[in-house]
Amino acid sequence: MTPARVLVFGFAAVILLGALLLALPQATQDGLGLPFLNAVFTATSAVCVTGLVVVDTATTFTYFGQWVILLMIQVGGLGFMTFATLFAMILGKKITFKERLLLQEALNQVSVEGIVRLTKSVLQISFAIETMGALILTLRWYSDFGWSKALYYGIFHSISAFNNAGFDLFGNFSSLTAFVGDPIINITIMLLIILGGLGFIVLADLLTPQKKLRLHTKIVLQVSGALILFGAVFILIMEFANPKTLGPLPIGTKVLAAFFQSVTTRTAGFNTIDISNMYETTLLSMIVFMFIGASSGSTGGGIKTTTFIAIILSVLSTYRNNLHVVLKGRTIPREVIAKAWAITTSAIFLIFIVLSILSHSENSDLQTLLFEVTSAFGTVGLSLGITPHLSVAGKIAIALTMFIGRVGPLTLAFFLTQKRNKLSTQIKYPDERIMIG
Amino acid sequence: MTPARVLVFGFAAVILLGALLLALPQATQDGLGLPFLNAVFTATSAVCVTGLVVVDTATTFTYFGQWVILLMIQVGGLGFMTFATLFAMILGKKITFKERLLLQEALNQVSVEGIVRLTKSVLQISFAIETMGALILTLRWYSDFGWSKALYYGIFHSISAFNNAGFDLFGNFSSLTAFVGDPIINITIMLLIILGGLGFIVLADLLTPQKKLRLHTKIVLQVSGALILFGAVFILIMEFANPKTLGPLPIGTKVLAAFFQSVTTRTAGFNTIDISNMYETTLLSMIVFMFIGASSGSTGGGIKTTTFIAIILSVLSTYRNNLHVVLKGRTIPREVIAKAWAITTSAIFLIFIVLSILSHSENSDLQTLLFEVTSAFGTVGLSLGITPHLSVAGKIAIALTMFIGRVGPLTLAFFLTQKRNKLSTQIKYPDERIMIG
Ligand SMILES: [K+]
Ligand SMILES: [K+]
């Protein structure tokens, strides 16, 4: 069995297990358990760290159900292979070369060397960040909810934010709209989302002080920063006077909310204003930001920031009649550019096919459907409100889109890099690989 | 001045001249002349052979106004440079190398050799086809309208169809809906559209009996055939029972109408059923077909059939981990693939930007706007009915989109092929150039 298949079947197995648990009577407050299709949808949404929900997380599930969801988020976010290694390490088992290959795939890494060390630091860094986030949120919510609930909410939302999952416990599909003007909550959640979305390789690179930053790290930081800033400025300008979104808020809160709504497209899925009331033009821009998504090997989704910059540079090179795509004095290898095009085209094709299906099966307008499908593909979790009202066909289509969105780019990238460097390429500048998808 | 600039300024000059003529009191039946913005829009639509109309052609214009429009369609369709050569030949003027370069650009050809001969045969073939079309239509309409009107309608609609312009004289924005079940009119118009959309090089290749068909010709014929067939089958299945489109028609007419509506996306703009009543899913597929459009160097628009097949093959090659894009035992050169990506990405970018502007300036839903923008970019001319109701900003945006859609791919391709073959490429199979954009 190829690593790609192991990953697909592994993710599917975790989803199935989670769905079975959510279907148990203990999982829901009505004592009936979740109907199976809704259970599969919710489990897929959790494992694929999307956050699209057909039932309200806070009011539908018991503590047991919510912990199952949180566990699936953690497993899905950090990757079940990372978890498998963790267990292997805990049990002192030897890690085989084949298992290392699986890990390489799970983390979208190009070298098998040091993969176990990397996995360990992935887990250490992740838990450290999640713990800090949980602490800050707990301290902030203590006065509102008391220690016990504050701690529970702190842990849940810190893990949900760092894993770009977007699940929340505030009820009535309201996400974080109650805290639109709260700087501590906004900044903490934003930092968790951003750190989770940069990718483990970037985090590890940033935490290794002695050496120069990789090209990949520099690109990810610059592109992510530019996307967040551009998105926030665009949202601020477009929605400034919208009486249903930013309009009634004081100026400082307007800026905070604009940044939060921009950060959430990288692909967290929390929101602090009612995005279904945003103007069409703003929603169109958010669809693009969700499509681009987060960075490679992160808890986020989308085609990835590096894929986006690779295709932009490729087009600009063609405009200049230059066959080589050059970035910061390095040539991006031709097969990387080809991968970027393949990923982007496959994503557009997938979104179009699912959109066509939904245009037939659902009663919503095209914009609402395109927003939903792009959100599912990018494992974002934002919705204009139709998720709970999806038809059976619609739920299945969206669940499959979340699954392909989460698993696809990774497995596709593996298939694509598997036999790389079999053909030499003409090189003008020294090569350096950046990660794609 | 570069050839690309000459073409842009030339097209713009023809549009401006046409707009001034349409603004004359003699041009409109109310004796007031067309308001300037509407005149510019109509002239742009005619010269760019699009067919989107803000006023009804039959009831608004006098014979003079209609002949101005027909002349602009002919100039725009065959390319004003082809016309310039025609005049040069008539006047016996020597054609300079620079003028040949301009012609090469106008026809999207890769070699300067034989360009005058090609231009002559372009004009001969075009007029021969248009004359045959006009004759058949005149004979068909004689019994309905009498000789004089039948001849006028025959000439107008033959030229409009062969040039993929989509302007009609049947009033009330009704296009050819009155003739949905008429096989002679449907088949004649379809053949004119298809022949005009294949491109002059393909027509010349087909009319030269001694030699083997070029790779380009084979690809264009196969892809065009496949697109028409697939579109027709999809429309037939989706709309079969739609009471507002194919539903009430007898089965033979259903098939005829499905084929006509498929052919019209290649990018003629006539319609025989009310497309605004089609289902969302059908309209989505038509948006894709309009985006792909017709073939290079033809009277049609869109990214072009060869561009479409080039990016599909490129993605499939990447899936198979093959750096070379191979088709029928030939390698498609790398810079051609790069051009295909650049054209497609630029087109998507343009459509998205214009869509964003319209989502702000107009009151229509996203699907209607996307259909309109794609129709304008592909110089198709189909509309769900909003063209006459566009705001001033909307009219300007759509007019610019038609202009870039018609001029852009050609000029872009010129810029891109200008310095080609400066870098050698690795070749596994013998190379053969196919045209892009
Ligand atoms: K998410
Ligand atoms: K047209």
From TrEMBL, chains A, B:
Lineage: superkingdom: Bacteria
Q: Where in the cell is it found?
A: Cell membrane
Q: According to its UniProt record, where is this protein mainly located? A: membrane
Instruction: Return the Pfam families for the record.
Output: TrkH
Keywords, ordered alphabetically: Cell membrane, Ion transport, Membrane, Potassium, Potassium transport, Transmembrane, Transmembrane helix, Transport
What's a Gene Ontology MF term here? potassium:chloride symporter activity
Would you tell me the protein name for this molecule? Trk family potassium uptake protein
Q: Which GO terms describe its cellular component?
A: plasma membrane
Its placement in the membrane is given as: Multi-pass membrane protein
Q: Where are the transmembrane segments?
A: 6-24, 36-55, 67-91, 122-142, 184-207, 219-238, 301-320, 340-358, 396-416
